[in-house]
Structure formats: C-alpha cells, structure tokens
Design brief:
By secondary structure, this protein is mainly alpha-helical. It is about 65% helix and about 0% strand. The protein is built from five helices and no strands. Helix 2 (about 30-60) runs antiparallel to helix 3 and helix 2 (about 30-60) packs parallel to helix 4 (about 95-100).
C-alpha cells in the first residue's frame, strides 16, 4: 500500500490556512462551507496527482494518452465544486469554493515566501 505524504512543513501550513478559511464561518456560514468543500477537493486532487505521477514514474512508460482520464476526472471534481457553489448558493459561496480549491497553491506560496516558518523562525 502506497504511503501518501506531504513535504515537510506543508501539512501544518495547510492546516493553518484551512482553519483561517473555516473561521470565515463567523462572517457567514456559506463562506466556511464553501471554503471547506474547496479545501477537501484540493486535498483530494493533491493525493490523486501524487498517486498518478508516482505510478507513471514507477512504470517508466508514458504515451500521448497517458493520464487523459485522470485529468478529465480532476477537472470534473473542480467543476463539481464550482457548480455546487453556483447552483447551491444557500449552502456554499462560489468565491470561497474557488479559494478552497487553491489551498495547495496558497500553501506553497506561503511556505516559499516565508522560508523561516519552516525552521521555526531561527536561522
């Protein structure tokens, strides 16, 4: 069984950003629900991509059709989150859903923009 992992320090950054996003529930519960839905999808997509690319690298073979269905499913997941925000505005805020989908990207930017966080602020 494959062990999924995040690079060192990213799990904590993702958790902090997710908590901050969920705290928007004090403003409007739809913000927190939208962000939470997007964040769950973002984390799911990260692990799907990790598994897919690990398998491609392990097999050592690739064709021009490698991953076409993988990426189709990824885009369907992202579209499903945004459609949930669009068609169920009483439950989800679409902009919060989009922000949640960018969770992994935001965490990478934060970790690289502030490298001292990785070392606990000490150099």
């Amino acid at each position: 069984m494959r062990k999924f992992h995040l690079p060192e320090g990213y799990g904590r950054t993702i958790a902090v950003i997710t908590c901050l996003g969920l705290l928007t529930g004090f403003l409007d519960i739809r913000y927190a629900l939208g962000f939470g839905l997007g964040a769950l999808a973002s984390i799911l997509l990260y692990f799907r991509n990790d598994s897919f690319w690990s398998d491609v690298l392990d097999t050592g073979t690739s064709t021009k059709y490698t991953g076409i269905f993988h990426f189709l499913i990824n885009y369907l997941i992202m579209a499903g989150v945004l459609l949930a925000g669009a068609f169920l505005p009483q439950f989800f805020n679409i902009f919060a859903c989009a922000a949640g989908l960018m969770l992994i990207k935001i965490s990478v930017i934060v970790k690289e923009a502030f490298p001292n966080i990785r070392k606990g602020g000490k150099e």
